[in-house]
Specification:
With 341 residues, this protein is mainly α. The protein has two domains: 1-173 and 328-341, no CATH class; 175-298, no CATH class. It is 68% helix and 0% strand. The chain contains 18 helices and no strands. It has helices spanning 2-21, 24-39, 48-56, 65-76, 81-103, 107-116, 119-123, 127-144, 148-159, 171-174, 183-196, 199-204, 227-242, 244-250, 254-270, 275-285, 288-296, 301-324. The radius of gyration is 20 Å and the shape is globular.
């Protein structure tokens, strides 16, 4: 377990020093450290075996075209499946780091959030979707600058890695809507209604969709049902809502980050057992990486120091919960450097 804490915190510190010293090579080392740590793992993560099976049967695979192409190229070059994991992690974290550098006002906080608050661990399992998530995260700049064609092109590419990404076309129009503190009511109802109404039963009546319902399938950060990880993020969401006006007044882009993260909270609260919507929610979860620095701006220097300490402890706690989950197959961490057949 210790290797996770050391590698991920070392990478976060490199991001901090890269920002303070303006040394880009430190940023690149941080990126490469995370990418190699994720890409060289060997039988670590729930879906590791699934991706080895995809690679072994790639000639007959029906997986998404872009991911299939990567597998085919690696196969014909005489490289093994380890190179699939390596290339996938390099694509994912390069785009996530680029998105952070373009959009975040605090590189350390954003990188720490990325590495410690569930995103890094998720990327080890839902590999194809995380490439799509990383492309979407990179494309946030085009939502902000209102460049629909470039945004649509990014979403088209993301859809070639995970078909669910095509639904993100509507995000371009939703994320700029001024919903404001109405999110209090929306999120309140979204969380409470499933305790009153049989939401799975209602949506299960739709032909073909009943198979996507499975109790306990959403185990965000290793606990039952919605999970400690999600519930803590729900608390963060309501804290941001409380300071909504201050956050928006300090940054013209904050409204997009707030809407994105609140969409994640809505989708997982209301559709908690509807896996199609839960997986869609993962795309919007990543807005937390940009929202946390905006939230910290609201407070004065002394309060910010306290928040830093609390947030660091929170990140370490979330990572610990993930690592202690035996079903996640994260411990022990094994690696393989050989990428040749």
């Amino acid at each position: 377990m210790l290797v996770y804490y050391l590698v991920l915190f070392f990478s976060s510190l490199l991001a901090f020093f890269a920002e303070v010293t303006k040394r880009n090579f430190l940023w690149i080392i941080s990126l490469l450290t995370v990418s190699l740590f994720a890409g060289l793992r060997y039988f670590v993560g729930i879906d590791y075996e699934s991706y080895t099976f995809i690679f072994a049967s790639i000639a007959d695979s029906t997986t998404e075209p872009a991911f299939r192409l990567i597998n085919l190229i690696i196969f014909f070059l005489g490289l093994n499946v380890q190179f699939v994991f390596l290339i996938s992690s390099l694509i994912t974290f390069t785009l996530l780091y680029k998105g952070i550098k373009r959009n975040s006002d605090n590189l350390f906080l954003s990188v720490f959030t990325l590495l410690f608050c569930g995103f890094f661990i998720e990327s080890l399992n839902i590999i194809r979707q995380y490439i799509a998530i990383a492309i979407f995260f990179y494309a946030i700049q085009y939502i902000k600058s209102k460049k629909l064609i470039k945004y649509a092109l990014c979403i088209a590419i993301a859809s070639c890695f995970h078909y669910s990404a095509i639904l993100l076309i509507v995000a371009y129009f939703i994320l700029n809507i001024n919903i404001g503190k109405l999110w209090f009511i929306i999120l309140g109802f979204a969380y409470l209604l499933p305790f009153i109404l049989p939401i799975p039963t209602i949506f299960g009546l739709i032909p073909g969709y009943d198979v996507y319902f499975s109790l306990g399938s959403n185990t965000d950060n290793g606990s039952a049902e919605l999970g400690i990880g999600f519930l803590s993020k729900l608390l963060i969401g309501f804290s941001c809502l409380f300071f909504y006006n201050q956050i928006v007044n300090l940054s013209k882009d904050a409204k997009i980050y707030l809407n994105g993260f609140f969409l994640y909270l809505f989708l997982l609260s209301f559709f908690r057992d509807f896996m199609v919507m839960v997986r869609l929610g993962y795309y919007f979860n990543v807005f937390l990486v940009l929202l946390i620095p905006e939230f910290f701006k609201v407070f004065d220097r002394n309060a910010r120091i306290v928040l830093y300490v609390l947030f660091l402890l929170y990140g370490f706690a979330l990572l610990s919960i993930s690592l202690l989950d035996e079903q996640a197959k994260l411990v022990p961490y094994n690696y393989q450097i050989n990428v040749l057949e």
